[in-house]
Design a protein that fits this description.
heterodimer, A: 193 residues, mainly alpha, 2 domains, three-stranded antiparallel β-sheet, two-stranded antiparallel ribbon, 8 helices, elongated, B: 548 residues, 18 helices, 3% strand, potassium (chain B)
């Protein structure tokens, strides 16, 4: 027993020295190497795929946002309100979820029987940057009316922003809401000017 | 293309990639752990750590080294977390003491259960210098223990199982670190962030405000998956777009979390000098994985026919099939990362994830832990099969006698004991019922999921359960610690008992352990043991919910 104890103490010192050496290698050197690679070949990705308008950052292509106002395409409901300093889903299920969905539908003035599923459900991250094509298309009349644009014009914009499955089979077809709204703002700017 | 075709093709590509890699990687690992030479950088590390790489250890010394290294790791990580406010890059992150205990135990035991939110609980310094380091060393510890057990079967005399420090360092330098570097660069190119920018508030086009996070995420994400760790940089884990931005990174992450565990059967086959034994274990792991994947996917696809498309808690860029694939793979290993919220899954989908863990994470299990847990079930299988047909139970010519089967049975019993006792106390006392988000059977599943996840060192959650209270943090920490180290000590004792035995020659009375029949028995024993242990509890949770 005493020999096991002294062995434990001896091995603990070795463990402490090992942890210090490995912390330098794996906790400092390894992340630094990956950081360096990012700076050399993937600066944009490493920084978070940021989007700038007129020189100021307005968001990231990867991170969904809260859109307020009828003139913008909206994203999905979010359990964290797209704040960005928190993330996560509702974790609801069963009748609690049914009640929450009814609340979301009435807030967004959607008919739960016909609305696309992603318009009624919150994502796991609370930061989903995408909506389905169906949800984007269903918003065309509202957005066109609010901006005084022809529905066909806005519908064509949505069409142009549908991204297919990656490599033809991975993931789902989707529309990036920020990209779509940027194009929408540009289109309105042109129409106005 | 329909979702079904897309989903099946995704699985096909994943399986093809794993099939292509597991043979060379498995053979390489066998070479790594039998090589008689040391790399120069390894010699330097042994000098700094002051250990003699030439000396071998008996099982007790090996176990003491594992425990000492892990206890030191817990203490250091705990100190890093509680003093993070005075360390560099603090950025206002903080944690309660009980949360810090839970987190330190969690990352050292390869669980990565998180009762804090990554955005608020940990500074970039702690994430990188503390958590990333444990993400590397905790799978290396699991790998070392698995190799020690394989040596117990492979060697036919003596008492030594190898040197823990050598196994630890080689596993890191020759296997885990190189793969993590490649994985990190691939994820970085795919859009996972890697910067030290402080969170910045931007004004959006519609005039709102949003905080954009920074962090050294790509380097941590790669090892989080590869090391079957699972602790997210952010609260939303691999559902967060900065951790998992698209369908390609999603597939890469699933591949990373499966690749070492699925390659280890090859390592085993090569090291024991009979590759068919490796195929048997691989067949066992792959069958169970396919079985659980089918069940979870079927349940989610079935639910997706409803008006909500089973999309609550899931991302549009992934959809139902890749979410089910991730959920199955993360709970069939000890990873516990999530790309969708398991609590919002259908009753049987979430129940399937829970059952995968209850089987003991065998399909293919965590790095190292998967192989040694599977070998324990193999020993149980030869014992049961031996009783049925009246043959002497033996594996690879090593007799499974009273000592061996006692150690095996104890190993198998640790996890269910922790899960059922702590779930029962929590519900009946009732100490945790006020923390449940859901009521009824789903609420029970929340609590059972938490203790199952902890005792199996998984780390995924039914995240509606508010686990950040002193009682829950400390009991979960206890489950993680005992669930990790009791089996490790028992498995090393088993290895010590096996290594001392001479290999018996194969005779007509030997039960072959490399036939498809044996694989069938092997799967049957795992499912029956797990099923019988947990069926009553599951009947009150996910099964009751599915039937109501």
């Amino acid at each position: 027993m005493t020999s096991t104890l002294s062995s434990f103490v001896k091995q603990s010192w070795a463990g402490l020295r090992a942890m210090l050496v490995l912390t330098v290698l794996l906790g400092v050197l390894y992340p630094a190497v990956v950081w360096g690679v990012g700076q050399a070949v993937a600066r944009d990705q490493a920084a978070g795929s940021l989007v700038s308008v007129d020189g100021s950052v307005v968001g990231s292509y990867l991170v969904g946002q809260q859109w307020t106002g009828a003139q913008w395409f909206w994203g999905r409901p979010s359990a964290s309100g797209y704040a960005g300093d928190t993330s996560g889903g509702s974790n609801l299920s069963g009748t609690a979820l049914t009640d929450e969905v009814a609340r979301r539908a009435s807030t967004a003035r959607l008919d739960p029987a016909t609305a696309p599923a992603d318009a009624l459900t919150a994502s796991g991250s609370g930061l989903d940057p995408h909506v389905s094509q169906a949800y984007a298309v269903s918003q065309v009349p509202r957005v066109a009316a609010a901006r005084g644009l022809a529905e066909s014009q806005v519908a064509a914009l949505v069409d142009a922003h549908v991204q297919g499955r990656v490599a033809g089979f991975l993931g789902q077809p989707r529309v990036n809401v920020l990209e779509l709204n940027l194009a929408l703002a540009a289109l309105s700017g042109r129409s106005a000017g | 293309m329909s979702d079904t075709v897309s989903g099946l093709l995704t699985i096909a590509v994943l399986v093809a990639a794993l099939a292509a890699v597991h043979v060379p990687l498995g053979s390489w690992m066998a070479k790594v752990f039998t090589d008689t030479r040391h790399w120069r950088v390894e010699r330097l590390v042994y000098r700094l750590v002051r250990v003699d790489p030439a000396s071998e250890q008996r099982w007790v010394t090996y176990a003491v080294a594992v425990l000492a290294f892990s206890v030191v790791g817990i203490v250091l990580l705990f100190l890093l977390i509680v003093f993070q406010s005075v360390l560099p890059l603090a950025r206002g992150a903080s944690m309660n003491v009980d949360t810090a205990v839970n987190t330190a135990v969690s990352f050292v035991t390869n669980t990565n259960w998180q009762s804090y939110a990554g955005e608020a609980g940990t500074s970039p310094f702690v994430q990188t210098v503390g958590l990333t380091v444990q993400n590397f060393v905790s799978p290396a510890v699991g790998l070392a223990v698995a190799i020690a057990l394989v040596r117990g079967l492979a060697r036919s005399s003596g008492t030594d199982l190898g040197n823990f420090w050598v196994d630890l360092v080689r596993g890191l330098f020759r296997v885990i670190v190189p793969l993590a570097l490649v994985g990190a660069v691939v994820l970085l190119l795919g859009g996972v962030i890697q910067n030290l920018t402080a969170p910045t508030t931007v004004t959006t086009l519609s005039g709102g405000h949003q905080v954009l996070q920074g962090g050294l995420v790509a380097s941590q994400e790669a090892i989080k998956e590869l090391g079957t760790n699972g602790g997210g940089y952010f609260n939303a884990n691999s559902a967060h777009p900065f951790e998992n931005p698209n369908a390609v990174t999603n597939l890469v992450e699933v591949f990373l979390l499966l690749v070492i565990p699925f390659s280890l059967p090859r390592t085993y086959g090569v090291m024991v000098g009979d590759r068919r034994q490796g195929w048997t274990v691989l067949g066992f792991m792959a069958s169970l994985w396919a079985l659980m994947l089918t069940a979870v996917t079927w349940s989610e696809v079935h639910a997706a026919a409803g008006p909500l498309g089973a999309l609550e808690g899931k991302e549009v860029r992934f959809g139902v099939w890749p979410s089910a694939l991730f959920a199955t793979s993360t709970t069939a290993t000890s990873t516990g990362a999530v790309n969708s919220m398991h609590e919002s899954f259908s009753a049987l989908g979430g129940g399937g994830a829970l059952f995968s863990m209850m089987l003991g994470e065998l399909s293919p299990g965590g790095v190292g832990t998967g192989l040694y847990s599977a070998l324990v079930v193999a020993i149980l299988t030869v014992f049961i099969a031996g009783l049925m047909v009246g043959r002497t139970p033996e594996l690879l010519g090593k007799q499974i006698g009273r000592r061996e089967i006692t150690l095996t049975a104890l190993t198998v019993l640790v996890m269910p004991l922790l899960v059922l006792v702590f779930t029962g106390i929590g519900i009946v006392a009732p100490l945790v019922t006020s923390q449940m988000l859901a009521t009824g059977p789903h609420g029970l599943t929340e609590v059972m999921y938490a203790y199952t996840s902890a005792a199996n060192n998984n780390g995924s959650a039914f995240a509606g359960f508010s686990a950040d209270t002193p009682y829950t943090n400390l009991t979960l920490a206890l489950c993680m610690f005992v669930g990790r180290f009791a089996p490790i000590v028992l498995v090393l004792a088993l290895a010590g008992s096996l290594v001392a035995q001479r290999r018996r020659p194969v005779t007509a009375g030997t039960l072959p352990t490399h036939s498809p029949t044996f694989v069938g028995l092997f799967v049957g024993v795992a499912v029956v043991v797990g099923g019988l242990t947990f069926f009553p509890a599951l009947a009150l949770g996910p099964l009751a919910e599915a039937l109501s």
